TrEMBL record:
Domain Glycosyl hydrolase family 32 N-terminal: 22-224
Alphabetical list of InterPro entries matching this protein: GH32_Enzymes, Glyco_hydro_32, Glyco_hydro_32_N, Glyco_hydro_beta-prop_sf
Similarity section: Belongs to the glycosyl hydrolase 32 family.
Protein name, entry field: beta-fructofuranosidase
SUPFAM superfamilies given in the database record: Arabinanase/levansucrase/invertase
UniProt-listed PANTHER family: BETA-FRUCTOSIDASE
Amino acid sequence: MPFTLPDVWTWDMWFADDGTDHHVFYLKASRALGDPNRRHFNVTVGHAVSSDLRNWREVADALIVSDVPAFDDYTTWTGSVLRQPDGTWRLFYTGTSRSDAGLVQRVGTATSPDLYAWTKHGDAVAEADARWYEKYGSGDWFDEAWRDPWVFASEDGRGWHMLVTARANTGDADERGVVGHATSEDLVSWTVQPPLSAPGAGFGQLEVPQVAEIDGRLVLIFSCLAGELGSTRRAAGGGGVWTVPIDDPLGPYPIERASRLTDESLYAGRLVQDRAGEWFLFAFHHVDERGDFIGALSDPIPVSWGRDGVLRVADGRFDHLRAHEGLVRPTGG
C-alpha cells in the first residue's frame, strides 16, 4: 500500500540507506489547510524508516523553517542526503525566505550523525548566478528557480557535484528549463557553474533532477507538469516523470530527447536501488482520475530498459505514452 498519512499530504521525497534501514525524507503539510495548493508554504520535512522499502514507520520530522531572518525562514523544500567521508550525513535542501515572499530559492545544508537529529549550517551555500541563470524579475517566470539539489561525488573522488532545478537567462519563457550545476571540493563551499543542459528543449523547468546508472547505462530523471511544458510538448501530450539516456553524468544532457516514464498521476520521481541490486521508481501519487490532489508516497515500482533504449516502468502501465510522442527538437535558446 502507498505510504499515506491520514492527517498530512506527502509529496517530493529523497532517500538514504544506512545499511540497516532505508530512510525517506519527504515534504509534508497538514490536510487541515483544506486547499492542497497551500501546502507549499506550510511545509516541513518529514522522515520515515523501513527495512524493505515497502513498510514505513514515521519518525520525528527532520527539518522545519528557521527563525526570522534567514534564507529559509519561510520554507524548507526538496533536497538530497549523502554520507560524508567521515561517516556522518549531510543533507542539502531548498530554502525560501519571507523577505522575498518565497519567490527566490536557495540551497542550504544540514548535518547529522545518525540521519535523525539534524543541525543546519548558516546561510545558503548556492543560488542562481545571473551569468547563466534567470533571476527573479528578469524574465516571465513566476519565481527564481534554484532548488531540488541532488549531490554526488566526482568519478575521480576529488570533489562533488550538485544538480539543481534552474532556468537559463536566454530563450523563450516556457523553454528555459535547464539542469543547473555547482561544484565543491569539501561539501561546504560551492561554486556555481554553467548549466549541464541547454534551453529550448521544451521544458519550463526540470524538477527534482537525478542521475543514476542502471545495468551499466546512465539515465537522467526529472519531472515536469503539462502547465510548465513548451507548446510543442504540450501538444504532444501531458506531463509527468521524464527520463533521458545520457553518456556522461556531467552532461551535456540531451534533454530534447526526453520521454515520459509516467503520466501526471505520479510526480517527483526518484530512482532507488535496493540491497539486492534491483532498481525502482518512487514518486508521489499526484492526482486521481478526476484531477484531485492525492499526496501520498508510492510503493516501489520496478523499472527496466526497453528494447528501444528507453527506461520504462516494468509492468508496462505507461507504455502507451510513447505512442504519441516523438523526439522534440530544440526550438529556442
